[in-house]
Amino acid sequence: MNNLKPNEVYQLNRIKEAILNNTPFDDVLKLCEEINPTIDDPEFAYTYAACLLATKDRIEDAMRMFFKNREDLFCSIMYDYLKEIGAFEMVSKVFKSAKPYHIYTQTPLYQTHEKGVVENICNFAKNNPPPESESLVTILDIGPGDGELTAQYVNKIASLHNLKSIRLVFVDPFEEELKAAEENCKEKISIPCEVIGICSKIQEITPEQIARIRQVAPIWFVNAALSVHHMPREVKIPMLKQMKAFSSKFILSEVNWNHDLPEKDSPELIYSVAKNYGIFCRDILNLPVSEEDRKLCLYHFPIDEAINIIKQERPNRIDYHTTIEEWKKIAHEAGYLVHDPVATYLYEDKPFLFVMGFYGNE
Ligand SMILES: C[S@@+](CC[C@H](N)C(=O)[O-])C[C@H]1O[C@@H](n2cnc3c(N)ncnc32)[C@H](O)[C@@H]1O
Question: Does residue 321's CB lie within 6 angstroms of at least one atom of ligand 1?
Fold first, then answer.
């Protein structure tokens, strides 16, 4: 879901050129019809042109172009969105309200992934027991959300190693998430649980916060589940180096998408957004929730993110999802040994979501 061939990129760049030059709709359409047969995904030229027209605020033209590929889920959702909202703008900032994400966690896609993450953390814990010297074992969890996933894996590894108590260090930029995670973990974790909440983006923790985390060393492992894709590659590397100073083991769960290195308006970026968010939205459409909740989830979460990634210049994106191959290189550059990834959700036999362990020197 991430790769276009060089010739496809070349052809699609002709559409970009035309739209940058403000070419009238009918001529762009003709160009798309000429280019579509040359690419493996036979209607993608329409999707690409529609997204570029939307970014140039040619909303009527974008809608007509999305409609040309309305069989594609991403295009049909974007068509409805533009019809209703009237602009290619984000309706909210992601995670402002926890509800859209909470609805999404009911999807089979997320639940399959969550189960896979818990299973993989258990496998890790089997092979890497906690420091023997410690009666209070400490885990650093980056971006715990509402703490549901954390509570699940902690309960499993607590019984696996017969832990008597656990200390969780949460780092999250949102106070509400820290509060929800602490409450949820204290309620659901079956052993005494101490929580230290650090309110910050992980890439921006202050020297005082670093010192606070160091006070609770040794840290058994760092867990980052869907939380470290909010920074570009050049920030991911120093962030990982910092984490290596806290613990020699880092468990990453992420989506295998390509929204970090490709530049704004590039065929590669829009291909990854349209394909991956299309798959991501499919399960939300099938959820047994009210129409109102479905729209809340779609518009305030995946579509919000997709518009942000498409519209913003690279330095201003909120999301920088990174492919498995690129994560391997990043971890390697940060000085880790990289373990083979395990897919937690497959789409057409390829990892859509995955877990991967990075190991530093003891
Ligand atoms: C998609 S949720 C994942 C929640 C949970 N870990 C899970 O896998 O279900 C992302 C979490 O990361 C947090 N987050 C976003 N940007 C972050 C950053 N730069 N550093 C740390 N946490 C961040 C969000 O507030 C949210 O709690």
Answer: no
